From TrEMBL:
Protein name: DOPA 4,5-dioxygenase family protein
Highest taxon above the source species: Bacteria
Sections of the chain in a coiled coil: none
Length: 117
């Protein structure tokens, strides 16, 4: 494994968020991807933000899911993301730890703004 390779997702928490990152060129695809995940797996999908929100330094859409959906959703997202970066993190209530220690990536890691916390 390359030293700069971000950690891959592991299913060891109860609740998760996935943040699919995109830009104006990939907006239509990212929106379809997130809504397809919501429909396929019966999950809550957040707004498709065409601005930075919270610690996210790129446009993003949030998918809320549990450990029960993890083993189906995460491989599906990885297979269908077509190069988009996806942050998957635990939702333990500790925002800093969730976005650092419990943060996993599909694709390249994206810089986060921890000053947002």
């Amino acid at each position: 494994m390359h030293l700069n390779t971000p950690p891959r997702p592991v299913n060891n928490h109860k609740i998760y968020h996935a943040h699919v990152y995109f830009d104006k060129d990939t907006l239509p695809f990212a929106s379809k991807l997130c809504h397809a995940a919501g429909e396929k797996f019966g999950l809550e999908i957040g707004r498709v933000h065409q601005k930075t929100v919270g610690p996210h330094t790129e446009w993003s859409c949030q998918i809320l899911f549990s450990n029960q959906s993890f083993d189906l959703l995460v491989p599906w997202l990885d297979e269908h993301r077509e190069g988009l970066s996806v942050l998957i993190h635990a939702d333990t209530g500790d925002d800093i730890k969730d976005h650092t220690t419990f943060a996993y990536w599909l694709g390249d890691a994206v810089a986060l703004n921890f000053d947002a916390f």
